[in-house]
Amino acid sequence: MYFAPESLRSPLSDSLAITVQNSTLTSRQLRSLHAQILTNGFLRCRPAPLLAAFISSCFRSHCPHYASSFLRSIPNPPPSLWNSTVRLSLRSEKFPAFLGLYGGMLRDGVKPSKTTLSAILRSCAAYSATRLGESFHSQVVKVGFEFDVILQTGLLDFYAKAGDLPSSRKVFSGMPERDVVADNAMISALSKNGCVEEARKLFDEMPQRNAASWNLMITCYCKLGDIDSSRRMFSLNPDKDTISWNAIIDAYFKLHDPAVAYELFVRMGPARNYVSWNTMISGYVRCEEYGKAISTFQEMQAANVRPTEVTMVSLLSACAHLGALAMGEWVHNYITRKRLKVDSVLGNALIDMYCKCGNVEAALEVFDQLETRNIFCWNSIIVGLGMNGYGERAVDFFTMMTEEGVKPDGVTFVGLLSGFTHSGMVAEGRRYFSQMTETYRIEPGIEHYGCMVDLLGRAGLLKEAIELIQTMPMKANPQVWGSLFRSCQIHKDTELGEKVVRQLLELDPRDSGNYVFLSNLYASLSRWDDVSCFRKLMIEKGVRKIPGRSSIEVDNVMHEFVAGDTTHPQFEQINLFLDEVARKLKEHGHEPDKALVLHDIEDEEKDSAIRYHSERIAVAFGLMSLPPGKTIRVVKNLRTCSDCHSVLKIISSVFQREIVVRDKKRFHHFKDGYCSCKDYW
DNA sequence: TTAGGGTTAG
């Protein structure tokens, strides 16, 4: 809380200060405050803190333009006010405002303070604002500001993070004197740009090293995949600090050794800080141990360590992978309760979580409320809409994105094109695929060709799909052949299908799915000898099929069911309930596909009866355990079989329940006997 | 001046 100096104390200045310190203001409130400040003689007395508080309030209220018009309305604003305003504009991620303010400051003859200059460099580096940083650089040169070692090092850091290694080198070699900090910055530049060997050489030649130098090398060797050298840097460092421990723990996670990482975390003991916890949580997410990520978060809370935005991002990522909507909602709630700052990274994590948990409306709400949206946020919403079967809405967002001046990238087009596949929008796919190169100058990668092959194939345009594979500039990978095979299956082109799957087996002999593809194909043709031949081949080669797993969240607990699994404590009740389900299905004229029971082994073990397919057990458990009207949300690791798909449609209407199933690749929203995929998957 | 965070086709 700001209080004006005694001499300036008046009810008005106090009330102004209070208003200004309050959270967000509307632009009308800002205007009226501005008028009050101008007309009440404040300016003559210059209560600098009040002026600064008002400016801060402009940024907090997302009206940066008020800050600059306010500054312009003050005769000779003090240099400190200029500087703090410029720094605020950086912190609020409002670069256009920053540029205007910075130019205004220079025109006003105010030299930026050293704090401001380093803040600018740091921000440019942090936000990879390459052009901005460069224009800043030239402006600074123009006004004749002298670069000392610290500023040059900042500049070096900026160019390093912007990925501009040549400029980093130029700055570094042009430095009249170098200290440890400068050498460290150059090591960091080299390491970040993949020139790990060179970084190592520089480190070896350094006349002086500090803790930071050793710590940098831990990460540097980790990038080389050389964990032994990372560990050596850790051990040799004479000033081991918390950062050293955190760096080595992270290195083990990055090289997929969570067990050693955990061991070090335990050994670290009281030296742990919040970053150590965040490293553990994000590390488990990286190693796909989502349950451990969540339990580590619970331990973090028990240890009374305050979680940060970074913690939340990792947690949300775990929820997204698990499809744990209730947990994700809890995290969102926690963020609001603890007033954590939802920046573009955290916002993106929320959007992604909601999309991957099948709650698109919540994702859209987060998206709308974001102050700053970067390419990640746009991509996540576009990918998410497509994945949930809303191809047209994805296009709407693409249009909005370009209208807002955000340039789409390769990921955007993957999202769009894959979304079109899920909605059968062939014409749009063609249009955007050509727009990609013609309008946006993005070279299509294998993933884009893969999307197109999928889109064309699924629409029955198999010939065109094959032609595209033959004419594309790179060799098709297993994914491309795999999607073409699915299309052959859907459109019953067994001849082409057999050719495709043989290609697949050659490229990817370890992938169990490919063998399953082929034996399914033979089964559909009643070529049983070939079926058993391939099963034998699978056993010989030691290729194991992945069992189907489905999970459902009830009362904040994740229940996982594996196909044919009878070990759940409530299995007997579930089984009785499945009988009832089967009875009701029969009443509605559904006959299970017997052929599928015996031969469709794509997703489940052959011998487990179809009624024990994991998604069916999970849905039955949901019907039993969740209150009426509550949507049943199931996450499955593989694709749903066609029989389960039609059963779930019937269940949604007979039991009047919405069911959302996330399978390996997309969402199915079942309601009133229909599925959002329109049986197109 | 060093440690921890986000989107990608079957």
TrEMBL record:
<feature type="repeat" description="PPR">
    <location>
        <begin position="343"/>
        <end position="373"/>
    </location>
</feature>
<dbReference type="InterPro" id="IPR011990">
    <property type="entry name" value="TPR-like_helical_dom_sf"/>
</dbReference>
<protein>
    <recommendedName>
        <fullName>DYW domain-containing protein</fullName>
    </recommendedName>
</protein>
<dbReference type="Pfam" id="PF01535">
    <property type="entry name" value="PPR"/>
</dbReference>
<dbReference type="Pfam" id="PF14432">
    <property type="entry name" value="DYW_deaminase"/>
</dbReference>
<comment type="similarity">
    <text>Belongs to the PPR family. PCMP-H subfamily.</text>
</comment>
<keyword id="KW-0677">Repeat</keyword>
<dbReference type="GO" id="GO:0008270">
    <property type="term" value="F:zinc ion binding"/>
</dbReference>
<feature type="repeat" description="PPR">
    <location>
        <begin position="273"/>
        <end position="307"/>
    </location>
</feature>
<dbReference type="InterPro" id="IPR046960">
    <property type="entry name" value="PPR_At4g14850-like_plant"/>
</dbReference>
<comment type="similarity">
    <text>Belongs to the PPR family. PCMP-E subfamily.</text>
</comment>
<dbReference type="InterPro" id="IPR032867">
    <property type="entry name" value="DYW_dom"/>
</dbReference>
<dbReference type="InterPro" id="IPR046848">
    <property type="entry name" value="E_motif"/>
</dbReference>
<dbReference type="Pfam" id="PF20431">
    <property type="entry name" value="E_motif"/>
</dbReference>
<feature type="domain" description="DYW">
    <location>
        <begin position="589"/>
        <end position="681"/>
    </location>
</feature>
<feature type="repeat" description="PPR">
    <location>
        <begin position="374"/>
        <end position="408"/>
    </location>
</feature>
<dbReference type="GO" id="GO:0009451">
    <property type="term" value="P:RNA modification"/>
</dbReference>
<dbReference type="InterPro" id="IPR002885">
    <property type="entry name" value="PPR_rpt"/>
</dbReference>
<dbReference type="GO" id="GO:0003723">
    <property type="term" value="F:RNA binding"/>
</dbReference>
<dbReference type="Pfam" id="PF13041">
    <property type="entry name" value="PPR_2"/>
</dbReference>
<feature type="repeat" description="PPR">
    <location>
        <begin position="179"/>
        <end position="213"/>
    </location>
</feature>
<dbReference type="Pfam" id="PF12854">
    <property type="entry name" value="PPR_1"/>
</dbReference>
